[in-house]
Amino acid sequence: MDNRRKKKLTFFTIGLMFLLSGVEYAVILPTIWKYLQTLNAAPYFLGLALSAFSLSGLLSGPLFGHWSDRTGTTKRIILFANLFEIVGNFMYFMGFSKWLLLSSRLVAGIGTGAGSSIFGFLTRSTSPEDRATVFAAVMACRQAGLLIGPAFNIFLRLCDFHLGPFVVSKYTAPGLFMCLLWILLQLAVIFMYWDLPPLERGKAKVDSTTQSREEENEREPEEEEEEEGNDEEKPLMGSQELVGSYGSVVPSNPPVNHNPAVSNAALNHVSPPLSPEPQESHESSSPFKNFSISREFLREEVVVLLTAQFITLFNQTALETMVTPMTQKYFGYGELENSVMYCLCGVEVIAGFLFVRWLSRRVAERVVLAIGLTICNISGVWCIIFLANPIGGYPWQLTEFIIGVFLQVLGLPFVAVAQVSLFSKVTAEKTQGFSQGVRRSVGGLATILGPLWAGGLTDNMYIMMGVMMALLALLTLMLAFSYDRLVAPTTQEQEENPENC
Q1: Could you tell me if residue 60 is inside a domain?
Q2: Residue 65's closest CA among 114, 112, 98, 106?
Q3: Domain tally for the chain?
Q4: Which residues fall within 8 angstroms of residue 3, CB to CB, at 6 or more apart?
Q5: Which CATH number is 336's domain given?
Q6: What pLDDT sits at residue 188?
Q7: What is the rounded distance in angstroms from the CA atom of residue 406 to the CA atom of residue 425?
């Protein structure tokens, strides 16, 4: 099988992984609260169960990323991480107690840490100009999973039978369903995933070799012309051509020696052997050689991108937490209406990712990031004015709500794709897995704090949305002051700071 086909199958498998992660979120989230109620769990257990999934992913991400940087492989890491997804979802299916359910989400969350290794792999196997489009496609796969996930609940809610000692109901069926899907994904990874070699390093070698050959081909006619033009001016034997190694007279063009042994001996006698070129493998045997966490993550551009990761996910999860109580309070929406709303939002997000994929080929990532932040700021202002205390009758309130949600969802793909792509370019490629793990951990922290913030302030919307708007304003100022630094390092900077390459 040729490398091009291997690459397509590998990227397809990565898309399946992100698709399943979206399906899992959409299948389990709608029923987990009633599932906990059947196990006599207190209301705070819902927050614990949702946060446990994010917490274990937050901790495992840098570890899996560090592992992939050390070994240079990701296939084994993915297979190992998926085992936690399989076991965790089977524990969720068992459902003997609320503590087992809580533990199941904690175990399953460990498997999400493989995402840092995958983003590191994508960084090393794609060119910088194509990276944003690849990341946009991968993120769109997860959104597609969020979109089609609720459709599986249509038949899962009809389950009512026994499987040995286990009861398969509309609450336990999502765990069994996801366990089977992750097992199928294991087979896909085994047969359709390859650890592709890094693209940039090989490409650079080919380009340099091609360029040197072209330069040699250009020089040869010029040198021949110069030699022909200077033949009349040259003496028959120059001073350097008169004297051999021991003062003997040798012709300017000695006869060709057909004996390679004699030829090599003569060459070695005349000039010392060339020193061997330093091998790259020795220099890069340890990707963390000369690596400094402070030097890598406390640079201005990295801090801005990590802040963008935290604030956008914090605001997104806070609004997701606020939406359901708000629709119930003002519009009387139930599960069906909310499911339709989430499906429409999923369609918008997928369309947004596809548009960003097209746009990122034509403009720089920092421009895409600025566009996304502008939309988010407009959405924040709109929400404070019209959603914190809706005015007018039912049609006006519904219109205000739709516009606010539309703007919030619209800005998400711009910010998400741009900051991930830029982060992969301003951090070291050799330690990309660990760096992506840190980035995802920052996002995991945001997904834990966002719902907690919004859940405790559903009756104080001005405070909740005011702080979210203040965070957006802070991020906008940081982007404005650091806009010039949000670019990939130049070749000269890479040579001066090889540890950041």
Answers
A1: yes
A2: 114
A3: 2
A4: 196
A5: 1.20.1250.20
A6: 92
A7: 30
Q: Pick from 201, 229, 262: which residue ends a domain?
A: 201
Q: What is the largest CA-CA distance in the chain?
A: 109
Tell me, letter by letter, the H, E, C secondary structure of 96-124.
CCHHHHHHHHHHHHHHCCHHHHHHHHHHH
* Burial class for 217, CB neighbours closer than 10 Å (0-12, 13-18, 19+): exposed
Q: Is residue 240 part of a domain?
A: no
Distance CA 109, CA 60 (A): 8
**First-last CA distance in the chain:** 32
Dihedral over Cα of 261, 263, 269, 272: its sign: negative
Exposed e or buried b per residue across 430-457, where buried means at least 16 C-beta atoms within 10 angstroms of its C-beta: bbbbbbbbbbbbbbbbbbbbbbebbbeb
Which tokens in the block code for residue 227? 């030699």
Q: What is the DSSP-derived secondary structure letter of residue 490?
A: P
Q: Give the pLDDT of residue 335.
A: 62
pLDDT at 240: 35
Element (H, E) at 296: helix 293-297
- Residues of the chain with confidence (pLDDT) below 50: 200-212, 214-216, 218-284, 491-496, 498-501
Cα(224)–Cα(160) distance, integer angstroms: 87
Instruction: Provide the 8-state DSSP code for 39.
Output: T
Residue 207 lies in a domain: no
Cα torsion angle, 425, 431, 433, 437, sign: negative
Paired with 208 in beta bridges are: none
* Residue located via tokens 């051999």: 244
Q: How far apart (Å, rounded) are the C-alpha atoms in residues 321 and 448?
A: 11
Q: 264-293: per-residue pLDDT in tens?
A: 444 344 444 444 444 444 444 555 565 566
Q: What residue numbers bound the domain in which 423 lies?
A: 293-488
Phi, psi (degrees; rounded to nearest 5) at 478: -60, -40
The per-type count for the chain, helices as H runs and strands as E runs, is 19, 2
183 CB neighbour count, 10 Å cutoff: 15
- What is the overall mean pLDDT for the chain? 76
- CB of 479 within 8 A of CB of 315? no
Q: Which of 201, 221, 254 is the last residue of a domain?
A: 201
Secondary structure element (H or E) that encloses residue 41, with its range = none
pLDDT tens for residues 215-228? 445 444 444 444 44
Q: What's the pLDDT score for residue 199?
A: 64
Residue keyed to tokens 């068992």: 94
Which of 151, 152, 172 has the alpha carbon at shortest distance from 163? Answer: 172
Query: Is 233 within the bounds of a domain?
Result: no
